[in-house]
Amino acid sequence: MQKNSSIQQEIIPIRSINEQQANTINQNQENNENENIETNENIKPELTNKIKVVKLENETDIQNYCKLLKNGQEQSDSVLLKLNQSINKLNLSKIYSQQCDQQILSQLKELNELNLSYNNLKTLPEQLNQMKRLQTLDISYNNLDNIDNLSSLTNLQNLNISFSFNINQQNFIRELASLVNLQQLNVSRNNITNIESLASLVNLQQLNVSCNKISGIESLASFVNLQQLDVSWNKISGIESLANLVNLQQLDVSRNEIFSIESLASLVNLQQLDVSGNKISGIESLTSLINLQQLNVSYNKISSIESLASLVALQQLNVVKNKITNIESLASLVNLQQLNVNWNEISNIESLASLVDIQQISLDNNLFGNEYLFSYRTFAKISYQQINYLSLCGSKLNNIDFLKYFKNLQTLKLNNNFIFDIGVLEHCQKLQSLYLNDNIILEVNSLQRIELQDLKIQNNYIQDFSPIKNHQNFKKYEKRYQRIPELRDYQKYNKSKAVKNSFYKKYSEENRSKKFSNKLQTVKYELQRKILKNLMNMNTALAVLQTFLQLENERGNQ
């Protein structure tokens, strides 16, 4: 190799950098571990009077090199870079440094996409001004003081600047106003209070201003090209300005202070709508939205959902935590696949029988109980073969024999019931996730042959855990599983105030009424029939029965 003065030049491909080594270095830096990591001799030569000429031929090469720069494993002043300038996409998330700006970005003037997220940047790279071809830029999750360099990027179509709290709002809005070719903009989580200056961005198709402090959205009326809009988690009370956005396909106005959604009646192209977490009492205006596929009206004040009967395209419906008593109108939603009606006042679910495509049902904390769910007519016509997710938490169940028909269940949630026998679950061999917390389960033999990925069975009365000791969750939750004493000690523990309170807490106010005695009789009968036949020994069964008898006597004396 020829010498030029005292400087030697060597061409060393960046591929000699071990990618795993570079990742390890980056990981160690993130964990603040001061380990002495040995690098390849060719990457950091001992001779200080040499300059390396390093070729970076693709995005992976650049990423590996930037990791070394950021972690001090390479000195930029001893390297002459030769980049493949045809590179048009570069992701420097979490690995960018100022040296990258000087050495790399200055040469990549043909970039179309650049990701600088998660780098704790306070200012944007100076070289951004020269990237006239840039169309997609992600500078989210930084610590920016200003975004002055953005105004010259007139070809930008996609900009993500979410979660950059130090931005001066007035400057921020002014810089964005000149980006008239923007089609996608994400400015969520920035403490923005006003978006009026964005009115010039008439080409926007997707806009996310969620998690800010916006109270008025009147300026959005001119965004007629919008297809996706997210204004969730703000302080918005009126959405009348959205009536003109007839091209909207996805709309999220959740977690605001909205009382009325009448203005949404004109948005006939909507496919996804989320109005959850507001103060809405009527949803009659949704009748015209016949193209809706996903609807979330949870956490409102809705008492009737009859107007949903015409939305035959619905595939997902969430009406959690309202005041709904009747769901007969759902019978016409033949395309429904996912239904969540948790925390309402529903007592009849026979209309679900017509939902032939239903796959996921969540019925937690409603007014129906064990006797109703176990009756033949309730589940007789439901397509058991389709259902893979079923949740009946807080449903006052003590008998779950009806589950033997649900052969394809993958997720089953039965927390907070009165279940003591789970033998029927041996028929549910496809179960992957099982939640049985806060019941009165006595044994878990039926779970031994089920290959569960997720098991929660805390706060029960299990004596023998050997059938599930090999389960991956058992060691993690073993102490919680075994917090209840063995059955033969129930009498002694039942005399303590703590155990009495735990029993009374399990029964809601409704169960402490006149129906308490009848439900207790049912539990006693099932315990006597099931436990004496399949469980342990006579002394154990009698101990459990005596516990319930004492509870009944104590209730009678109150």
How big a fraction of the residues is strand?
5-15%
- Low-confidence region ranges: 1-19, 32-49, 483-516, 532-537
- Amount of helix: 10-25%
- Gyration radius (Cα, Å) is 32 Å
* Class derived from helix and strand content: alpha/beta
Number of helical segments with 4 or more residues: 11
The dominant shape is globular
How much is the average pLDDT?
Answer: 79
Largest sheet: 17 strands, parallel
Number of strands: 20
What distance lies between the first and last C-alpha atoms, to the nearest angstrom?
Answer: 100 Å
Describe the structure.
With 558 residues, the protein is of the alpha/beta class. The protein has eleven helices and 20 strands. Among the domains are: 84 residues, no CATH class; 71 residues, no CATH class. The longest helix has 20 residues. It is globular and about 85 Å long.
